[in-house]
């Protein structure tokens, strides 16, 4: 979770504030979420199977027995379970930043590698944490009592978490665990809608909604390559082929019209799309226009070669001095219904 940020130029107050919030978040969002202290009740812990007395609700970090019975410790999957997993229902949306696991304690049984998966709603869909487009494999234990903690590169916001053991030591797959994170409202929102609004909107009471002022409808350089790659950033990226700089609308601009000296992905690399590295509602794409400009329209597009697209989004803006504000209509955040999925 520790990171250092080095920039070639001075940052605006709003960006400094954003990084300060991120640092405070990383300090404060490491609290145990209730496996060891039983704040998470037994009925919210389930599994694909269990062996003997090693039920899912005994999968609590440092548990050494119940009512004097040392056999009641740790969760173990049935030996015939071909796809073992354990689920933890947090009861409400939480931000997960890490996990600790332990072996059985009583006998030499522990998990050596595992995956972390989660759901973002109640539709039954499960997503597993990725690394460069592949399922992320986390390292587990090498003995029955030592605690191994894994921090997540990108925190995830979820109510239900699934641990999928992949390999283990001993005649049964067994583990104890704790989750770390914080309440969802502590997650650092890159769009801080507090403070004075210093940005200027073209539309006002005298400009009818939907009417674009004269000479203010030209493209601002994203699809043409006029705006170079250094002006793109995002909350996360799926892999090197789906970086923020690839979030350019596919259009009919002739490549020869772009300066060969332009540092732009439109001529340097194949055009794909930006895809977030995580699937949650805290992902964002940010574009620095380089100077104050009037924005009157936004066009979005899905992944041109795959069935991924965005269905709704909010728009934040800033003059690079004040904090980022949400675009509103009549005091209500404007949500544009366009596409669906996680790629622009």
TrEMBL record:
- Please give the PANTHER family that the UniProt record associates with this protein: MULTICOPPER OXIDASE-RELATED, SMOKE ALARM, ISOFORM D
One Pfam match, by short name?
Answer: F5_F8_type_C
* Organism (species): Thelohanellus kitauei (Myxosporean)
SUPFAM superfamilies from the UniProt entry: Galactose-binding domain-like (SSF49785)
UniProt-recorded name of the protein = Neuropilin-1
For this protein's source organism, the top of the classification is:
Eukaryota, Metazoa, Cnidaria, Myxozoa, Myxosporea
Return the InterPro entries for the record: FA58C, Galactose-bd-like_sf
Superkingdom of the source species: Eukaryota
The signal peptide annotation in the UniProt record is none
- Domain F5/8 type C, by residue range, is 29-182, 216-344
